Amino acid sequence: MRLSHGLRLDALPQPGIRQLPTLRALTWLKAGWADLRANPLPSLAYGLLFALGGDLILLTLLDQPHLFTVALSGFFLVAPLLAAGLYELSRSHANGERLMFIDSLRCYRSNGESLALFGLMLALLMLLWERFSAVAFALLSGGGAFNGSALLTEIILAGEHLPFVLTWLIIGALLAGLVFTLAVVAVPMMLDRQTDVVTAMATSLRATLANPAPLLVWAALIVGLTVLGFATLLFGLVVIMPILGHASWHAYRDLVE
């Protein structure tokens, strides 16, 4: 594969990938909890921002079902980038430093071009997902509009549109799986090693292919814990998101030599 200026992807420096046991993700969660306890205030500040920001967005979109569902599902697409500050807190803790919340925000200026390109890719995927959902809901409603209660009663609980729900979930899961595959170590690696976005995503892909079982467990834990946070009106994310963010840093350090 050729990049700009004749550079080949296989010519870029590629770090080694470790092969890990299936349940290694439990160790990452334990390390994430340790990082949270070591520096709780900035970590919980990120969690509080996730919870309050998410609640405000969802309340605003409650009467626009396709945007409401896109906001819920899209969280899995943008979370790797939003958690960059948590990766920075874990990186500093590993180096024996103790950062405040405002200090950790400076990570977005580190390797900013690569982070911006990665964010642009996530934004384009979110836009595609939003457009697909808009068309799907318009076809489902015959050109009309569902309100928030109809989304819950007619589409989800009553089972009147089961094929639509299953199709929407499958496509959303495939998109989230693609992002997970390309992002599982990408953002921590861009912060830690100042790598370009192509090398970081290629390393994520290689890590996933080399460790399908442990990363499938890790993905399931991320989804399960995040859904648990949603079930608490997002306030469970105050603790869950910092743990997952810190654990993602340890996943990167464990997977990439």
Explain what you see.
There is one protein chain. By secondary structure, this protein is an all-alpha fold. It has one domain (19-100, 110-255). It is 74% helix and 0% strand. The chain contains 12 helices and no strands. It has helices at residues 24-38, 40-60, 65-82, 84-94, 101-104, 112-140, 148-157, 162-183, 186-193, 197-210, 212-231, 237-255.
Helix content class: over 70%
Any idea how many domains? 1
- Which overall shape is indicated by the principal axes computed on the Cα atoms? globular
Number of helices: 12
As residue ranges, the low-confidence spans are 1-11
Listing every helix as H and every strand as E from the N terminus to the C terminus, the arrangement reads HHHHHHHHHHHH
Summarize the structure.
The protein has 257 residues and is an all-alpha fold. It has helices spanning 24-38, 40-60, 65-82, 84-94, 101-104, 112-140, 148-157, 162-183, 186-193, 197-210, 212-231, 237-255.
Question: Which key features would you list for this structure?
Answer:
12 helices; disordered N terminus; 257 residues; mainly alpha
Draw up the topology in text.
Elements: H1 24-38, H2 40-60, H3 65-82, H4 84-94, H5 101-104, H6 112-140, H7 148-157, H8 162-183, H9 186-193, H10 197-210, H11 212-231, H12 237-255
Helix pairs in contact: 1-2, 1-12, 2-12, 3-6, 3-8, 4-9, 4-12, 6-8, 8-10, 9-10, 11-12
